[in-house]
Specification:
The protein is an alpha/beta fold. It has helices spanning 38-47, 56-64, 66-69, 344-379, 386-419, and strands at residues 2-4, 7-13, 19-26, 73-78, 89-91, 105-106, 112-113, 128-133, 141-142, 148-149, 165-167, 173-176, 181-184, 190-193, 195-198, 209-211, 214-217, 226-229, 233-235, 243-246, 250-252, 256-257, 263-266, 270-276, 279-282, 285-299, 302-305, 311-319, 322-328, 336-340, 427-434, 438-442, 445-448, 453-461, 464-469. The protein has four domains: 2-78, no CATH class; 89-137 and 151-183, no CATH class; 190-319 and 337-345, no CATH class; 350-414.
């Protein structure tokens, strides 16, 4: 604050140092007699260490018409904000050669090909698969005090080569080491796997399949058969009560009718037209175009069913981030459980830990009971036989092991319970209607649907399950 004659000039710098304001403090009796010089303003700014971004036109107007700005704050200097850097990202040039068109194609003679509906995108040895675009550092800004303001640098990202993939010396590009099909597996590693094709059904003529690569089945997978792949599994027909395990993704064109048999597990995504009476687990997403009926479906991130029909009825669905469909349930209030807000495997791990803890507690009880009997013998003044001394040593060691195991399990249980509180960004989205009979679970928060909801998003807000209308 600087006093000059019958007025005072106060300069205030913003917290981010990108703006300075000046306040011309004048008494009512001195309003008409103010004479303010530009040198006085610059001196006040210099005293407050304002050196850069001074708005000369504001200084001039302030001095020309001081009564206009009396007892009011006016911006007198503006700095230059830093420009944050951009995050690194990865481009996938091979995707440019993959067609998004699906469905039957018309042949030259006018007939429609209903058999070769899906083309399998392959890459060749030496083909560029991924290119890392590095993060940028950003551009520094300037504070009104003249100091540089450092920008926020962009986040770097690691390019992750998997099997049959090589990178350049700088580790910025990935190339295919063999001919095959691209597959993303755990932690978004990019792989190229050889392709094993079955030109019909997986039946007694083919048998079970266990292939270190990607498996393409141009028919159906029948009851009781098993297909395992370290890459992806693509089925152009349907899957019955079979077992499918893929480290990558699983795509089933004609749907799953499992009759409560078998299991389908993918490390990344599962895509299909419908799921009925099946047990399905995906590390990332389950994407269904038509319906999910009376099934157990788990996804580390999302379960999406929003095609033209997009209906979910019955069963238990668990997703870490979101469950979305056009229609949930039916007029008959068929019980349907929707659980979001935590990865399903965490929920299962917690259940396993609670079971293990019960066993540990029971074993500790029995161990303490045995040691108690031996201690009673010692307290009575009797000596323990050799056999009982050996038993005492064994029980003491067992107790130490059980105590350690108990502490580890209890610590992990606490960690899981914190993650299960439902505080994460999770949602259930209804694009058309949700009928009564639905049980919503966000971590440990539970809500039973007792009336119809139309176009609604269910989220956790301030520790409670709340609703918002979808636009």
């Amino acid at each position: 604050m600087e006093g000059i004659g019958n007025y005072r000039l106060e300069v205030k710098i913003s917290a981010d140092k990108l703006e300075a304001e000046i306040f011309l403090k004048v008494g009512e009796e001195d309003l008409e007699s103010i004479v303010l010089k530009e040198s006085d303003v610059y001196n006040a700014l210099q005293t407050s260490k304002v050196k850069a971004g001074i708005l000369e036109e504001v200084v001039q107007e302030l001095c020309a018409i001081p009564a206009k700005y009396a007892n009011a704050r006016v911006t007198i200097a503006r700095g230059v904000a830093p420009v944050d850097g951009t995050d690194a990202f990865i481009e996938y040039p091979y995707l440019a050669t993959v067609s998004d068109e699906e469905g039957p194609k018309e042949l030259e003679d006018g007939r429609v090909d209903f058999y070769n509906i899906t083309s399998i995108p392959n890459v060749v040895k030496g083909q560029l698969l991924a290119r890392k675009i590095p993060a940028t550092p950003g551009t520094p800004g300037t504070a009104v005090t003249g100091e540089p303001i450092a920008p926020k640098a962009g986040k770097e990202i690691n390019i992750k080569p998997g099997k049959n993939v090589v990178h350049n010396q700088e580790r910025t590009m990935l190339y295919a080491a063999i001919d095959g099909q691209v597959s993303f597996t755990d932690q978004d590693k990019l792989n190229v796997f050889p392709v094993f094709e079955v030109n019909g059904d997986v039946d007694f003529g083919v048998g079970n399949i266990d292939f270190v690569g990607t498996v393409v089945i141009r028919g159906n997978v029948l009851n009781g058969f098993r297909v395992k792949a370290s890459g992806d599994i693509r089925v152009l027909g349907s899957v019955e009560g079979a077992e499918l395990y893929a480290d990558g993704s699983i795509e089933i064109k004609s749907g799953i009718v499992a009759q409560d048999k078998g299991m389908i597990v993918a490390g990344k995504d599962i895509r299909t037209s419908f799921i009925q009476n099946a047990n399905v687990t995906a590390g990332h997403q389950v994407i269904v175009s038509q319906s999910i009926m009376f099934s157990t479906v788990r996804a580390g991130k999302q379960i999406i069913c929003k095609g033209p029909k997009g209906i979910i009825i019955g069963g238990v669905l668990q997703a870490g981030e979101k469950i979305a469909a056009r229609v949930f349930g039916n007029n008959s209030a068929t019980p349907t459980v929707l659980e979001v807000g935590v990865k399903p495997e965490l929920r299962q791990e917690l259940a396993n830990i609670q079971k293990d803890l019960q066993n540990v507690y029971e074993n500790l009880r029995k161990t303490d009971q045995g040691l108690g009997v031996l201690n009673q013998i010692l307290h009575s003044g009797k000596e323990l036989t050799t056999e009982k001394r050996i038993m005492q040593i064994k029980l003491t060691n067992t107790r130490l092991v059980l105590e350690k195991e108990c502490k580890e399990l209890e610590a992990r249980k606490k960690e899981l319970e914190i993650e299960l509180k439902g505080e994460g960004p999770a949602a259930v989205e209804v694009y058309q209607v949700m009928y009564p009979g639905i049980k919503l679970t966000f971590g440990k928060l539970v809500h039973f649907i007792k009336h119809e909801y139309a176009r609604t998003r269910f989220i956790v807000l301030d520790g409670e399950i709340s609703t918002a209308t979808l636009i």
